[in-house]
Structure formats: C-alpha cells, structure tokens
Write a structure and sequence with these properties.
The complex is a heterotrimer of chains A (about 400), B (about 180) and C (about 80). With about 400 residues, chain A is mostly beta strands. Chain A has a single domain, classed as Porin, CATH 2.40.160. Chain A contains no helices and 18 strands. In chain A, a hairpin with a 2-residue loop joins β5 and β6. Chain A is globular. The N and C termini of chain A lie far apart (about 65 Å). Chain B has about 180 residues and is α/β, with parallel strands linked by helices. In chain B, about 40% of the residues lie in helices and about 20% in strands. Chain B has helices at about 5-20, 70-85, 100-110, 125-130, 160-175, and strands at about 40-45, 50, 60-65, 90-95, 115-120, 135-140, 145-150. Chain B has a 5-stranded mixed beta sheet with strand order 5-4-3-6-7, covered by helices on one side. A two-stranded antiparallel ribbon of chain B has the order 1-2. Chain C is mainly alpha-helical. Chain C starts with a helix and ends in a 17-residue tail after the last helix. Chain C has 2 helices and no strands. Classes of the chains: A mainly beta (about 400), B alpha/beta (about 180), C mainly alpha (about 80). At the B-C interface, α1 of B face α1 of C.
Chain lengths: ~400, ~180, ~80
C-alpha cells in the first residue's frame, strides 16, 4: 500500500552549541494527565478539613555517557470542603525543562539542547450525597507547541453497608498541536474515555479495586520532532486495573499492590505490576519502599534500526521500494521492560503539618522484556526522580 | 478490537461484577427499628459498669463511636451540650466505644473531652445487637426500653433535628 | 502468555467464590470494624500530587497510561 504522504526531507544535524526552543521530546507535569483521578476528593463524604500541599518535583534522565533531560516542577494542590456537601479541588504545576533531547534510534546524532516551560492546571468540583458523589473536572495545559483542554465527569455510589462502591467516569479532551519546526500546523487530537469500576472492602484489613477503561482517540499522534514518524490517526486503548491494599495487624504495615493490563490499536500490549509497603516507624514517621515492573510489546509499525539500503538512515528498510503506511522509530513504541525502585519518607509533625520526600530510580532495557524478545539496537535508558513536599491542614 | 482484547475485557468485566457481588451474602439481616424494644447490655465504663436495667426511666441517648470515626469529633461537643441542657429532664447520654484497642479510645478522649458516660465494647457485641449500619449511629431509648429514634451519621445540619427528637421524646415521657 | 494472563484474571473471581463458600478470608467488615480501612495508607490515591507526577513520567517514557480514573488532558510529551 502506498504511503499516504511522503516524509519531509532529511534535516541537517543541529549544531549542538545552538540552543533551540524545541519541545515535545520530554515534558513533565505533575498533572493534566489522562487517567489520574485527583484522589483526595474520592472519599464518600466531603473532606473534614481543607488541605494545601506544595511539592517540588525533579526529574533527570540519561543514556550511557550522556546526560539528557532535566525537569524541575513546582506544584500546588488545594482541597477544601464547601458548605458541608461540596468540595473543590485545584492544582497547578509548572514544568521547567532543559537539556539534550534523546538520542534514540533516530540515530540523528546530536542531541540538540532545548528549553521549555509548561503550565498545567486542574479544577474539580464534587457534590456529596448520602452514599454517593458526583464530580466535574476541568483541565488545561499550555506549552510552546501543545495546548490541551479537557473535561471529565465522575460518579460514585456505595451500597448500604458502604463496603461496595461503584465508580464510573467519562472524559473528553481537545488538543491543539503546533510544533516549532512547523512540520505541521494547527493539528488536532480529540480523545474520549470511559471508565467503570468497583471498590470492595474484602475484610476489615483488605480493600480491592477493579477498573475497566476504554479510550478512543482521533487526530494527530505523530511525534513531529522525529524525522521518520507516521502513526495512524486513530488510537483506541483498553485498560484493566486491579488494586489491592492489605493491612497487616501484627506490625501495622500496609501492602499496596496493583496490576494493570494495557492494550491499544497500535498493537502495544503492556503489563504493569507495582508493590509498595507502608511501614510506620513511629507515630510520626513512615517509610514506604516501592517497586514497579513494566513490560511492553512494540507497536505494529515500530521498526528496528535496520535501515533502507538505498537511502539509508533513518528510513526503515524497504522504504525506497515499498514504503509502509505507518512507521516509527520512537523507542517508546518498542519492546522492552523497565524496573523502578524507590522509597518515600513521610514525617507528620503534628495534626496540621506534614513533610514528605520520595526518591525513585528507573531503568528501561530491551533485555528486561517479559519472555524475551526485546527490541534490538537500543541503549538502556535511566532516570531518577524525586519529590519533596509539605502539607498543611486547616 | 482484536479477539484477545475482547476476551481480556470480558475477564475484567466478570471480575468487576464478581467483586461487587461478594458483599451480598454478608448484608446485615434484621434491624432495630423505631418501636422495637432496645437490646439489653451490661458494659464496663470509665468508672465502673453500666447496664440497661439500671437506666430504666431515663431517656437514654445511645451513641456508637470510635476513635477513627471522623464525624464523632464533631458529635462529642454537641453531646456535651445536650447532656448539660437536658440532663435534669431525664436525658442520659451513653456513648459506647467500639475500638479494638483501649489505647485508641483513650487518646481520642484526651483530645475531645466528654462530659457524659462512656462505655467500652471492644468485642462489638452491642453494635451487632443494635444492628448499627454506619459510624456513628445513635438511638433514643425511652424509659420503658423502647427505641423511639434512630439516626445514622452525624453532620452539623443534623443537630437541630436530633435535638428536636430528644425534646419530643422527653415531652412524651413526661406525659406518662 | 496472553492466555495465562486471561486465566489469571478469571482465577480471581473463582478464588473469591471459593473463599466465600468456605467462609474465611473474605468477610466484608461490619460498620464498627472499619478502623484499619480508615487509615490514610489504606485509601486508594492518597497523595494526588505524588501519583500525578509519577504517572506523568511514565506516560512520557512508556506507551501504556491511565486506568486509574478519568480526566486530565494531554501534553506534548508522548
């Protein structure tokens, strides 16, 4: 099948001394992320107190012998009850990104340096009833080349004994994409999602949750900063999540575990397993070590670093004779496994103040894919992330 | 959507449904309703013992509370007020604690002072007999040991209606 | 391997039913027995800023995302 459009001609290597506003490679914000429910307003009844939290989050990644992206992101979160039956929740975060863009198997060497800033904000209003609640959430994210607006509605309803809670939600987002290299202009991406789930108290020490989510996306999914990237304009995802919190009476510790199954129309299938162990060391001090394993099967149109014999890198093999409809060299679509190890420390000063610090180490390797068969020709990827936060009740 | 994904979705849906149905066999049977006789009890208190027989003739406000129950922090000052206001008319507030550990209850009482009688039932016998469905739940038991009012939960907006029920019950008792 | 995972998923309600019938392990608590469930660490999603930040990192480094809830929007990071 002939390609529907030809790629733009090969761009010359950027001089690495020239700083350039190039965004989209990695931006990080604590919020405005599909699928994360602002948790504090999840309780069955309006919160008792108002809480304000501030966090400073940092991220740094690297590949062998190369430091790459650094992000510093201050964030703020407020949760407040209103008039007994309502609550409002709001957050704002600013990502400050700098560094060298990834040298993945786009092999166009030379990471060029980039800087960007992104601001994202989120507001949620919840109305509480006797054993139910309904919430509406509005999200906004703005950066140099990408703007996103989203709304979501969610509801929860509990059984008479409060041991079973059914949850459901729908969301929609509209994104506008204007890459700085102007490879496309005013592209769009529209996504709708729906979720149903149930939270069940299995015993006086066990709480479990099952969620089923379906997402449908239409629009521009290419990475405009990758020289060779052509993805379908439709992306549908199905996600199943199981979570289990278990309290151990003997030592007052809690084990939190989860398993998530992900599958999308690109052919990507992924499994995520997370376990963390909340250990109160004293009445005020808690330590929570955590671990996560992630494994992913590549997108159907991901190609390994085997290039076309005629036109060479970065074009996939066979490009000159019979170009594929879809293709991408983005390592994020390859087959690999990843591990995270981390620990969180929380210190509750008194009834009003608390401080927390979390540090995590992350590494991605093709060889760590479950069952083998990881994509060849990719360098391991490492990242560290940390956060320090303070929280005050009112 | 591929067959595989459909099947996985089906498995998850089954799991979701199964999980929600787990609670069904355990749903509480029976209720202590207005008009029915209140269960009898004999429990230790902060200063000795209390038993239902000894409270005959009084309007007993039986309140089930625990240290982890958030609305209980608000109900205590209000119960202090009620005991002070209507004590001489025959109201007797009895707050039964259901914490598994006495230490937790003591810590709560240290922070939230109570000027009414506190009883302890760590084994959870009385809440089961009273068919408590939420925490906190309170019952008004008249002079003959009959339940005249049941209230689950405690919100600021509830205070007036509960107080009205207390006054109404006291008036009825006086007439007898 | 996919078959294995599907079987695992079906095993969950199966195990739950067995535990239910044998009357042990799974016993939804009475309202007055919820002391441990009321602990902050036992709630799902206790620290929203933490979870949002971490999930965002994974969203920009991995293909899979979401599943925890609805809402939020996109970013130019994936």
């Amino acid at each position: 099948m002939a390609a529907t459009s030809r790629p733009t001609p090969f761009k010359p290597k950027q001089a690495s001394s020239e700083p350039r506003k190039r965004v989209g490679a990695i931006t990080l914000a604590a919020l405005a992320l599909p699928g994360v429910m602002l948790g504090a307003a999840n309780a069955d009844s309006a919160p008792e107190d108002a809480v304000i939290s501030a966090k400073l989050q940092g991220y740094k990644d690297s590949q062998p012998n190369l430091d790459r992206i650094k992000v510093i992101a201050p964030s703020l979160h407020i949760l407040a009850p209103i008039a007994g039956a309502w609550s409002v929740e709001a957050s704002v975060v600013q990502d400050n990104i700098s560094g060298a863009t990834p040298r993945w198997h786009t092999s166009v060497a030379g990471a060029s340096r980039m800087e960007d800033r992104r601001i994202a904000s989120d507001v949620k209003l919840t109305r509480y009833f006797d054993r139910a609640a309904i919430g509406a959430r509005f999200s906004y994210s703005d950066e140099n080349d990408y703007r996103s607006n989203a709304i979501a509605l969610d509801g929860r309803y509990s059984s008479a004994d409060n041991n079973t809670t059914w949850v459901a939600g729908i969301g929609a987002s509209r994104d506008a994409i204007n890459p700085v290299n102007q490879i496309v202009e005013n592209e769009r991406k529209n996504v709708v999602e729906g979720m149903i789930g149930v939270v069940q108290a299995l015993s006086k020490n066990d709480l479990a949750q099952f969620n089923l989510t379906h997402v449908r996306g239409r629009g521009y999914f290419n990475d405009p900063y990758k020289l060779v990237d052509q993805r379908p304009r439709e992306k549908n995802q199905t996600i199943g999540l199981i979570r289990w919190n278990h309290f151990i009476e003997g030592n007052s510790t809690t084990v939190r575990s989860s398993y998530r199954f992900y599958s999308d129309s690109y052919g990507v299938q992924a499994h995520t397993v997370q376990v963390e162990w909340v250990v109160p060391l004293s009445e005020r001090f808690t330590i929570t070590p955590s671990t996560r394993y992630y494994t992913q099967r590549q997108a159907r149109f991901y190609f390994n670093p085997v290039y076309d014999p005629d036109i060479g890198e970065p074009y996939p093999a066979g490009y000159s004779t019979n170009p594929p409809t879809y293709y991408s060299a983005d390592a994020r679509l390859s087959s690999y496994g990843a591990f995270t190890l981390g620990s969180k420390f929380e210190w509750r000063f008194d009834k009003l103040w608390s401080v927390d610090f979390k540090y995590e180490l992350y590494q991605q390797r093709s060889s760590w894919r479950l069952g083998g068969g990881g994509s060849p020709g990719l360098l391991p990827f490492r990242a560290q992330f940390a956060q320090i936060g303070v929280s005050r009740r009112f | 959507m591929s067959n595989q994904v459909m099947e996985t979705m089906r498995s998850f849906t089954i799991a979701v449904v199964a999980l929600s149905l787990i609670g069904l066999p355990f749903t509480q049977v029976g209720a202590v309703e207005v008009g029915s006789p209140a269960p009898t009890y004999s429990l230790p208190t902060t200063a000795g013992k209390v038993d239902s027989a000894g409270l005959k003739g009084k309007l007993v406000y039986v309140d089930f509370w625990a240290s982890w129950c958030v609305p209980c922090k608000q109900s205590f000052p209000w119960m202090n007020e009620m005991q002070a206001k209507y004590g001489n008319r025959g109201l007797h507030v009895l707050a039964i604690n259901v914490d598994g550990k006495q230490a937790d209850a003591d810590k709560f009482l240290g922070q939230v002072p109570a000027k009414f009688q506190i009883a302890f039932d760590p084994a959870g016998v009385t809440p089961r007999q009273f068919a408590v469905k939420a925490m906190p739940t309170s019952y008004l038991v008249d002079g003959e040991g009959r339940v005249v009012y049941v209230h689950a939960g405690f919100r600021e907006s509830d205070q007036k209606s509960i107080e009205a029920a207390i006054v109404a019950a006291l008036d009825t008792m006086k007439k007898r | 391997m996919k078959l294995m995972f599907r079987r695992l998923l079906l095993a969950i309600p199966a195990t739950a039913s067995i535990a239910l019938l044998s009357g042990c392990a799974i016993q939804p608590p009475q309202p007055w027995e919820k002391a441990n469930l009321a602990r902050k660490e036992m709630t799902m999603d206790a620290d929203p800023l933490d979870q949002a930040f971490t999930q965002h990192i994974y969203f920009s480094k991995e293909s899979a995302s979401g599943g925890y809830g609805v809402g939020g929007g996109g970013c130019g990071c994936n």
